[in-house]
């Protein structure tokens, strides 16, 4: 399955509805722990050098969580979710970004 499924609007886990079937049971590690949400206007380093909005400490398996920037609000064109360090693997099932053009609020749901 491709990265385009991270923004297909589907939060369920049924393959026939566009999600992934692994065809057997696997232990899935938490690949979001330690990830950073970065927001800004720069594409330097693929946008990964933009200011940090929040750090994901832990999202329990099967749950979704909404993050609001630690500083309250941030301005930026690009939103990145990145795990710092070399050879890190990031797995996202669905990403939704909601922003208020007035700058009053911005949230990211994973």
From TrEMBL:
<comment type="function">
    <text>Acts as a defensive agent. Recognizes blood group fucosylated oligosaccharides including A, B, H and Lewis B-type antigens. Does not recognize Lewis A antigen and has low affinity for monovalent haptens.</text>
</comment>
<dbReference type="InterPro" id="IPR008979">
    <property type="entry name" value="Galactose-bd-like_sf"/>
</dbReference>
<dbReference type="GO" id="GO:0042806">
    <property type="term" value="F:fucose binding"/>
</dbReference>
<comment type="similarity">
    <text>Belongs to the fucolectin family.</text>
</comment>
<keyword id="KW-1015">Disulfide bond</keyword>
<keyword id="KW-0430">Lectin</keyword>
<feature type="domain" description="Fucolectin tachylectin-4 pentraxin-1">
    <location>
        <begin position="1"/>
        <end position="103"/>
    </location>
</feature>
<dbReference type="InterPro" id="IPR051941">
    <property type="entry name" value="BG_Antigen-Binding_Lectin"/>
</dbReference>
<dbReference type="GO" id="GO:0046872">
    <property type="term" value="F:metal ion binding"/>
</dbReference>
<protein>
    <recommendedName>
        <fullName>Fucolectin tachylectin-4 pentraxin-1 domain-containing protein</fullName>
    </recommendedName>
</protein>
<dbReference type="InterPro" id="IPR006585">
    <property type="entry name" value="FTP1"/>
</dbReference>
<dbReference type="GO" id="GO:0001868">
    <property type="term" value="P:regulation of complement activation, lectin pathway"/>
</dbReference>
<dbReference type="GO" id="GO:0010185">
    <property type="term" value="P:regulation of cellular defense response"/>
</dbReference>
<keyword id="KW-0479">Metal-binding</keyword>
<comment type="subunit">
    <text>Homotrimer.</text>
</comment>
<keyword id="KW-0106">Calcium</keyword>
